[in-house]
Each structure stands twice: as structure tokens, then as C-alpha cells.
Amino acid sequence: MSEKKKKGFWEKFAHKELSRTHEVQEGSELFLLSEAEIAALKKIRKRTFWRAGLAGALGVILLYAPYHIFGSALFPMNHVWIPFYDDYIDIEIGFLVYSLVLVLLEIWFLTFTNIKAVAHIAKACGHPNPNDRNFENNISALISVGLEKKQKQLESIGINPYEGLNPIGVFVFQIILRLKATVSGILFKLLVKKALGRYALRAVIDFAGIPVYSFWNIWGSRKVMDESRIRVMAPPLIKRCSDLLYESQKENPEFVKSLYDSLQLISESKRSFHYNHFLLSVTLLERFGIEIKEEPPYNDDFLEEIPSLSPQTRKAVQQLFVFGIMIDGAISRREKKAIRYLIEKNVLEYSEAEIVKWSKDYFDGRGIEAFFAA
Questions:
Q1: By C-alpha distance, which of 151, 159, 139, 134 is closest to 264?
Q2: pLDDT tens digits for range 276-310
Q3: Is the peptide bond before 167 cis (omega within 30 degrees of 0)?
Q4: Angle 69-72-73 (CA atoms, 0-180°, nearest 5)?
Q5: Which of 243, 196, 23, 34 is nearest to 122 (CA)?
Q6: I need a surface site. Which of 46, 189, 234, 292 has the fewest CB within 10 A?
Q7: Model's pTM, two decimal places?
Q8: Alpha-carbon gap, residue 232 to 141, rounded angstroms
Q9: What's CA 32's distance to the chain center, in Å?
Q10: Between the CA atoms of 354, 358, 360 and 362, what dihedral angle is there, to the nearest 10 degrees?
């Protein structure tokens, strides 16, 4: 057997923070937020936003203040010979190294801030529960949120949200996302320079990036906290949905046969890897006693065949689909488009407005009783 991958510093730190003993909640208490919990989450949110925004502002100030105050005395120009260019070019090597150090320090601080925020959110909501059989999986999921790591457990059970997409296109899309802060910073500087004209001072243009980098830091922290919240509230809802489907469909071989295809349909509609979908998939497959495979056979015509399934199976498939796209806390434009398409195909009986409303209720901690009663 291959050795288990060793955990890095941040993974160990996050695991320690999330494993600390605290009062846990079970059942409806976990996905229904009380007034006290809502107040605690708002406090965590404000504190994290302030720290993330300050880190972005200080990053720009500490980078350019010494540069403009001390100039070449601190960051001299270096003449570097480039063989393939066959000439010298002028590079401020000291400034580049200094920039790199500041970037690493900012990333370190933001990682620390995000992990603490995730841990505080989990503690405020009484999660995770050491008695839960998925305790370590739930902690691992929250660690990935704090470290902003993509989880791809879906691949291990044979579900691929990028099925049918060009791999090069997916790669380019991910690169563009990572460059958004840098690109927007450059564009904002160009806008400032254009507005001020030739009289714009270099220092003014450089420091103009403060609000841009502060914004992206706050935006990133917001995504982390939102994701933590929905991962905390999801497990009991997933268990309830799985139990209800099992009770109504355990004697229905047609639904059991279509379960893998239904889960793949959800994944393709989302076009993203998400832990809650992984937990839902594993829970259902284990509940129905279906063997988990890395490369299961799929019915390519499943979507077209759904309207011809028995009413009992069709009802369960649409319940599972709607629950599956809600469980990550938001209905994206892509998912709304998929919902409208499935309504046209007579696959869904629910309206788009109903599904969006249920998703918002889930994210806001009000529960989704209306969905289970539909």
C-alpha cells in the first residue's frame, strides 16, 4: 500500500482548530439558524471582512511606500544579460524579491484569517459532531474551504461534472479566475491614469490599486465563509433526503437502476465539484447498497428517457435533482438554464421560482420544509 500523504502545516493547523471540543448540534438544530447564531455569524463576517480588506490595503502601501520614498537607494536598477535576447535589460531585482515576500506574507495572513473564520462558523453552528460517521470527511471538507482547495472526491465515485467539456477550455477558465485580481488591478490603474491624464503621478497610480486588492480579498473571504456555512448545514438535510428517498423507493428497481444517472445529471448541471454533492452521492449509493465504481456505465439517453419512466420513479428523480442543485447554497445561471431546459423536457414539475426560493431558505438557515412537503 502507498503511504498516506502527509499533511502540511496549514492542514494540521486547520484540523486542530476544527477538532476542538465544543457543544455540538444534531438534526434540525444544525440547519435551522437561531437569532443568536445569526448574530454570531454576522460578527464573524464583519471581523473577517475587516482583516481581509486591511491586508489588501497594507499589501499595496507596504509595497509602494518604500519604493517611492527611497527609490533607487533601496531598489537599484540591475542590468541583466539575456542570452537569447543578446543584450542587457534593466530589472529592479530587489523590488521584485520584495514584492514576492509581501505576496507570500499576505497569502499567509489571509489563509490564517480564513481558517479561523471557518472554525468560528463551525463552532457557532455546533459542527462537526464527533459521533457522526462522516466526522473526518466533514472536517476535511471544512479544511478545504479554509485553504480554498478544490475537492474532487466525485471522481472517486465515477461522477464527473466536466463530462463533455474540452479539458483545455476548463484549464484556461481556471487560470483566468486566478488572474482576476491582477488583471482588474491593472485595468483600474489604467482607468485612473486615463482620468488624470499626463499629470498623473506614478505614486498616485500605484496606490490606486488599494481598493481593488482590498475588494478581492474581502470577496475571497466572503466566498470562504458562505461555503463554510452551507457545508455545516448540509449533512442532516442530506441524511433526511436520503432516508425519505430510500423509504419511498427501496422496492423500486427502476429508480435504483437510474440513481447513478440521476447523480451524474446533477453534476453536469452544476459543472463543478462540490463536497455536499459528494456526500449526497455517497450517502445515497451506500443507502441503496449500490457498488461505488470509479468508471460506472452511464445511459447517454437518460435525460430523454426520464418522461417515459414510471410516475413513482419520475417523482423521485426530480426530487433528487432539485435537492442536489440546491445543496451547494445557490442556484447559478447555468443551473437556472438547466432547470428551464428540464421543465421544457417535462422532467421537472416544480417552477424555477419555487426552486430558487427553497435554495435561499436553505442558505438563510430557515430550512426547506416546503420542498419536502411538495
A1: 159
A2: 888 888 889 888 888 877 777 777 778 788 888 89
A3: no
A4: 80
A5: 23
A6: 46
A7: 0.70
A8: 10
A9: 21
A10: 180
